[in-house]
Amino acid sequence: MKNKNISTFIACEAAYDEADIVLFGIPFDGTTSFRPGTRFAMQAIRPDSYGLETYSPYLQRDLEDTRVFDGGEVELPFGNTEKAMQEILDYTRQVVADGKKFMMVGGEHLVSLPTIQAAYEKYPNLHVIHLDAHTDLRQEFLGEELSHATVIRRCHDFLGDGRIFQFGIRSGTKEEFDWAKEHTHLEPFTATTLQETIEKLRDVPVYITIDLDVLDPSIFPGTGTPEPGGWTYRELMEAIQSFQSLNHIVAADVVELSPQYDVSGGSTAVACKTIREMLLTLAK
Amino acid sequence: MKNKNISTFIACEAAYDEADIVLFGIPFDGTTSFRPGTRFAMQAIRPDSYGLETYSPYLQRDLEDTRVFDGGEVELPFGNTEKAMQEILDYTRQVVADGKKFMMVGGEHLVSLPTIQAAYEKYPNLHVIHLDAHTDLRQEFLGEELSHATVIRRCHDFLGDGRIFQFGIRSGTKEEFDWAKEHTHLEPFTATTLQETIEKLRDVPVYITIDLDVLDPSIFPGTGTPEPGGWTYRELMEAIQSFQSLNHIVAADVVELSPQYDVSGGSTAVACKTIREMLLTLAK
Amino acid sequence: MKNKNISTFIACEAAYDEADIVLFGIPFDGTTSFRPGTRFAMQAIRPDSYGLETYSPYLQRDLEDTRVFDGGEVELPFGNTEKAMQEILDYTRQVVADGKKFMMVGGEHLVSLPTIQAAYEKYPNLHVIHLDAHTDLRQEFLGEELSHATVIRRCHDFLGDGRIFQFGIRSGTKEEFDWAKEHTHLEPFTATTLQETIEKLRDVPVYITIDLDVLDPSIFPGTGTPEPGGWTYRELMEAIQSFQSLNHIVAADVVELSPQYDVSGGSTAVACKTIREMLLTLAK
Amino acid sequence: MKNKNISTFIACEAAYDEADIVLFGIPFDGTTSFRPGTRFAMQAIRPDSYGLETYSPYLQRDLEDTRVFDGGEVELPFGNTEKAMQEILDYTRQVVADGKKFMMVGGEHLVSLPTIQAAYEKYPNLHVIHLDAHTDLRQEFLGEELSHATVIRRCHDFLGDGRIFQFGIRSGTKEEFDWAKEHTHLEPFTATTLQETIEKLRDVPVYITIDLDVLDPSIFPGTGTPEPGGWTYRELMEAIQSFQSLNHIVAADVVELSPQYDVSGGSTAVACKTIREMLLTLAK
Amino acid sequence: MKNKNISTFIACEAAYDEADIVLFGIPFDGTTSFRPGTRFAMQAIRPDSYGLETYSPYLQRDLEDTRVFDGGEVELPFGNTEKAMQEILDYTRQVVADGKKFMMVGGEHLVSLPTIQAAYEKYPNLHVIHLDAHTDLRQEFLGEELSHATVIRRCHDFLGDGRIFQFGIRSGTKEEFDWAKEHTHLEPFTATTLQETIEKLRDVPVYITIDLDVLDPSIFPGTGTPEPGGWTYRELMEAIQSFQSLNHIVAADVVELSPQYDVSGGSTAVACKTIREMLLTLAK
Amino acid sequence: MKNKNISTFIACEAAYDEADIVLFGIPFDGTTSFRPGTRFAMQAIRPDSYGLETYSPYLQRDLEDTRVFDGGEVELPFGNTEKAMQEILDYTRQVVADGKKFMMVGGEHLVSLPTIQAAYEKYPNLHVIHLDAHTDLRQEFLGEELSHATVIRRCHDFLGDGRIFQFGIRSGTKEEFDWAKEHTHLEPFTATTLQETIEKLRDVPVYITIDLDVLDPSIFPGTGTPEPGGWTYRELMEAIQSFQSLNHIVAADVVELSPQYDVSGGSTAVACKTIREMLLTLAK
After folding, report:
1. Best mutation site among B38, B75, B78 for testing chain C: the one with the most C CBs within 10 Å?
2. Interhelix angle for B41-48 vs B266-283, to 10°?
3. Do E174 and B270 touch (CB under 8 A)?
4. CA–CA separation, F100 and F94 (whole Å)
5. Is A223 helix (H, G, I), strand (E, B) or coil?
6. Which C residues in the span 36-75 are in contact with A, Cβ-Cβ below 8 Å?
7. Distance between CA atoms of F77 and F54, rounded to whole angstroms?
8. pLDDT tens for residues C215-251?
9. Is there a contact between B269 and E227 if contact means CB atoms under 8 Å apart?
10. pLDDT averaged over chain B?
11. Chain D contact set for B262 (CB, 8 A)
């Protein structure tokens, strides 16, 4: 009775100091051009995670056997994108400096920029696996260089060629698809080359960024920019199972849940289950 | 003009005495721990069933050619689970005693306990085919032995080993999956062993219980505990078509529709179509 | 960064030992006959309370100047009403024994029974002010004596005549209205006799139970059984302001928010503001 | 167990022959220009009527003491307005011929045309009290003479001047307001002249048509064309109480509920309560 | 600043005279028997089309390289089906007379009757490819010959045998399936014979009518009559890609989006993407 | 047929050059801290304005008799508040420079800052009437000086003392209420001093800014931060009628509609009607 009311993702109850993995949310949707709402993702995910079991029959491992600290959500200013990105970068640098792996939950996809950067600063040989419906490779969008539509291009600014592997992409400008041919590995629509990518990245540091709109909108309607023709949940689970062969995953994120666009709660359940599987993957 | 306003599932207009099958609803969701609402299922199903045709192009049979009595919904107390289970048991016993097959529509999955029991009392050699996302094999849940999460375990209490065949299961505790190895036939995720199960059960009395959350939440978002990674509707239809080889189906149920979580009405349509196909299966 | 993710009602950040008032939620809707959902009230209220200011321009006092502990929600079994009532009673007795005032947030109205009982055990001269659309005076409902529709009658069982003062009532059976004439003070529809009631109760221990459906459904649509013709929010605020003359309020509750029936969040805002004003009233 | 599943408005369980009043629904919204949906009104009203009590503390009478037959809904073709109007007229003529009073539930307001006509054929001295937000006095609308926007003008075609009394009107063209000055009694916005109208009509046959959008959209959001600035529910109840002085009410209707625009169910509750009060008024 | 506020489907900005293709909407749902709402389709599609890119990575062509005029929506009377059909026919005849191809967006499926007729008048050898869940081959429905459930039968009235090719059909009466055996090419459930159909129709004038409910309700919940067991979006895209081999597509339509039944916007996104792909197909 | 698809607020069809008033929308909600969505206001308002009549029975004037140009919505960058404010300022300056009055529709309240500034630059003696639930007088909010919560304070930066008149205010920090006592005229809750304010401002240039959350959330649930206890719609109409005595209104705005929080469309109707009345007020 005397404890305060603590709210975490299911089974993520370790103290910070004893944790191997830090889970945190970034409630930012400031550059979302179409329909905002990803700021509410983590707030919906926590209570709904209790509709899951802690045990994964896919990976045959249990979240109860991991040590994850739930750091809540990073507080950010509204209306000032540069300052927000700086605060996310500062937070993530500290987590990395403390020797933790991390699992970030967005927010819009732009918030992966500072978290990938923090991981890159520690692991200069960082490679990125990117699951998404959209290329996110524009040089600028509506006059801004910091945008959900430019985030992977901004990561390329420091990572350079040959480091980014994109799967599931089914929307972008002609220029983006052309640009990708020279600078990233981009497989449109599907993930048939994922297995060979994983072979290649087996022993290098890897960051996995999952824009959940890689899934078909039927599976994941709770997102701002639905793009029909995406993956089934089983296809995503196959990708996650193939990640088990990677020996050096340093961090991951799951972004672009906008829970209010799916009143059934199914999209939030998709996010919860993906986070559970990715936490178990990071904890391996 | 002079008739009262009668409301039935489409084409289920037989009188009780002339009917071969009794269709009835159980508006109970009293042990639902996460999100209640299955009490409203039958109320949504009846009017929406008129969006269907009576003819099934899958089975090439017509509901107009069957004799089904729609018994409405069993009235139950609120807040007293034991009394509610007793009243369902009494009702179903009477239906069985009158020589009818029956089709029950839930309600949460716990309501299958008294209906399976009533069928078992008449057919002691009863076998159960169970389609579900969840194991439902807990010994107790939140301190209660009567719960949607324990229902199949409670059925095992009287049926014993070798009588329960579970398909599509993708969520449960490690303990449940371990327990199942010794006491039930449990196929995780898929239904590849369904065909051989049906061979085995061809001539014994069979009860089929369909928790509609065996379907992926994209197909069936209108449910309390969505669990991603489930079946497509075509996979469920294949299972139903394979049921045509069973020679002694004595009863069936369809449970866990919570219509308010799917404002599109698609989940209610899924329930309606499944009920139509199962009524035609029972009537064969 | 190192703190766990704590979630409270706005400004209710005192530790238990230093607190004057304990705020807690009861996520119970087990006897709700029509439309369930009050179990989700406290979960919606906490984050939305940050849409409020801590300062009340009505009472010209600030929640920051009070010491309230937010005890989260009492965990309860599902489907077993008697056991749930007992656990609420145990919890509340402890709060009262520790010398705290309390503010309970429902849940359906039945949960006021154990909290009023706990207050009564400490203050045998307890009087109850009851704002509601419904009489709640049935002897039993659908065969059960413990029900949202019987709760005030059950309180009368131990409080006796002359202790219960009901306002805003606009729905009930003829029997209930007749019974009230002899056993409670019941003012239908309005609150014109509230002022004289307060005069009378100025120095006795008082418990205030607010069923928010006393408000018109336009003001408070987020409830299971909307009853048109209720109070405006200003009328409720006038009642709360008149409570400032009571010298011995020992506890209060606010019940019957079902947030999912009001997607605008307006009903949750009504509950939050009412809780803020009542906490300031208790803290006086 | 052997009865079919009968569904009625609460307490309207008389057989046709023994009934004094016939309640029936008209699921027609074929000329609705803005947002359709009134076809679903009666289907929502029946189950939700059980959230009411049968006793009215306003009128201090009980629906259990009346004899009302619930005739269900008249089946109509889609897309053919003239044929639909003819079928409603035929149905209502029969009810009137059988010596019954009636209570019709729309549907869009156009459906009052054939029901008022049927009443007029029996009572050539018929007067109409009309509560509405809109004038409904156009000569034609979008090229059609039969429309929700022309219905009262069409009634004037056979009733003539001095028979129609309109209250609450707050929307229309300048031409309609001008026309009303010579042909109807139209009080804009309020009902201050209702009392004197009732004096005047005390002993003549009266039909009362209530377009529920006379209420403010806050009270009644479940309607196709919300018009802010309307009545509170108490103002509507005052009007209904004043109807008690009329000695010869022959029929009434309640139209324009579109339940799907109000997920809270509050608008349906408003319709249910209004129907209960009007049935008690008719039954006097 | 000085231009009026023009609203078009993305990249459909050609003037009428310079356009090759005319895109227009028909906001008609007057014979919809179950749940209306397709009248709102085009209004939802226009703004949401800006969530798409103009470039199709499937067809590797860009809408910016086509010349499409967006003609807005044809204004129609309400409640008079025959007059509405005549006005659509007049409009479409003019478009065809001006030498344009066209892309019509419904509205309910009945609106394809006048547009197919206008195309047929110019191309007497017209063939129709029909993707749908429903046969639409009734002789009459609820007493009316003009209905969403009769539309393809009405087209057969003038096209005759051997001209209509139906795919994806999974709902209809036994009579309709039997009738189809002699008068149309009807493939139930799937599209395995689509390829050979396209071979056959390679050089004749073809009209493609896509009732989006051919898709599974999980992919396309925003429709009035959801019929489970339909196509995935990838299956529809494969059909569209096979259309690229047709040398003489003269017009197409996309019908039966009811956006209000899918609050996620996913169904509207499906309609937008299908329109983009079909415009690129027409423009080839 | 040959015109492009033009979409305006009802009856606002004048060309820019001939217009007296320019109506435009600002789809900005970048500093919204709680629930975003006001960016969608104007997009919802235009089609729903056709549910209104052009004639106001309150003011007895018709919008058809005015000359209003609908300028659509100003395009803005996402995530860069300063740049967005500059672009709004540039746009509004041009409108003012061309000798037009204007009516701006938000967007969050911050967008009133550049439009008030543009009006002030032309009319240095500008006075502001401010209807709102919130003080909006913070010096900064979450570290930012440009915020919906600081907008009136930012206006005071250039307007100075004695120019701002605030009504309906029922939420703010104690500091804000105290600051207002010295720098603005702030009437909490009500508008009893509005009449005398209007006397005082009869002949000076006045800008009227209406944050629609001054209305009670029952009347206007479609807003990000509902604050119970607000005005009825009739109270707002009385304020608007009193504005008719002002001789020099130079501009007005209506802000903070978030249409997605009110699926009934009632809030959008409130915004439409308020815009119509204010356009008629500006046009006087």
Report:
1. B78
2. 80
3. no
4. 9
5. coil
6. 43, 46-47, 69-73
7. 34
8. 999 999 999 999 999 999 999 999 999 999 999 999 9
9. yes
10. 96
11. none
Containing C22, the helix (H) or strand (E) segment is strand C21-25
Distance CA C41, CA C212 (A): 12
Of D34, D216, D263, the CB nearest to F233: D216
What's the pLDDT tens digit per position in D97-133?
Answer: 999 999 999 999 999 999 999 999 999 999 999 999 9
> Count of CB atoms within 10 A of residue D192's CB?
9
From chain F, the residues in CB contact with C62 under 8 A are 174
A88-110 burial, b at 16+ Cβ within 10 Å, e below that, comes to bbebbbebbeeebbbbbbbbbbb
Q: Which CB contacts under 8 angstroms, 24+ apart, belong to F230-236?
A: F230/C233, F230/F133, F230/F168, F230/F170, F231/F168, F231/F191, F232/D216, F233/D216, F233/D218, F233/D228, F233/D229, F233/F270, F234/D229, F235/F191, F236/F131, F236/F210, F236/F274
**Which of helix, strand or coil describes residue F240?**
helix
Does A263 contact chain B (CB < 8 Å)?
Answer: yes
CA distance B171 to chain A (A): 7
Please state the ipTM of this predicted complex: 0.96
Whether residues E173 and B266 touch (CB distance < 8 A) is answered with no
CB < 8 Å to A146, chain F: 79
Which chain E residue has its CA at the smallest distance from A218's CA? E219
Q: F219, D222: Cβ pair inside 8 Å?
A: no
Q: For residues A211 and B46, what is the distance between their CA atoms, to the nearest angstrom?
A: 40
pTM attached to this predicted model: 0.97
pLDDT band at C77 (very low <50, low <70, confident <90, very high): confident
**Minimal-distance CA residue of chain B relative to C84:** B79
- Local structure of residue E199 (DSSP, 8 states): H
Q: Nearest-CA residue of chain D relative to C35? A: D51
Cα–Cα dist F247/E18, whole Å = 50
Alpha carbon distance F112, F130 (integer Å): 11
| CB F219 within 8 Å of CB F231 | yes
Q: Give me B110's structure tokens.
A: 């716990």
F173 touches chain C (CB under 8 A): yes
Determine contact, residues D99/E53, Cβ cutoff 8 Å: no
Segments of F26-126 assigned E as strands: 55-56, 61-62, 68-73, 101-105
> Tens digit of pLDDT for each residue in A252-275?
999 999 999 998 999 999 999 999
CA angle, F232 then F238 then F242, to 5°:
150
Type of residue numbered F225:
T
B101 bridge partner residues: B21
- C-beta separation of E79 from D144 below 8 A: yes
Contact (CB<8Å) C233/F221: no
**Is the CB of residue C178 less than 8 Å away from at least one CB of chain D?**
no
**DSSP bridge partners of F103:** F23, F252
Q: What is the DSSP letter of F26?
A: -
Q: Are the beta carbons of D227 and F62 separated by less than 8 Å?
A: no
Q: Give the residue from chain D lying closest to F265, CA to CA.
A: D226
- Bond before F143 cis per omega within 30 degrees: no
Q: Contacts of residue B77 in chain C, CB cutoff 8 Å?
A: 142-144
Q: How many residues does chain A have?
A: 284
Instruction: Judge whether C234 is closer than 8 Å to chain A, CB to CB.
Output: no
User: Å from A228 to nearest chain B CA?
Assistant: 13
DSSP labels for D195-250? HHHHHHTTTS-EEEEEEGGGB-TTT---SSS--SS-B-HHHHHHHHHHHTT-S-EE
Contact B226 A263 (CB under 8 A): no
> Computed over its alpha carbons, how large is the radius of gyration of chain B?
17
Q: Identify the CATH number of the domain defined by range B21-283.
A: 3.40.800.10
Contact F129, F209 (CB under 8 A): yes
Structural domain boundaries of chain B? 21-283
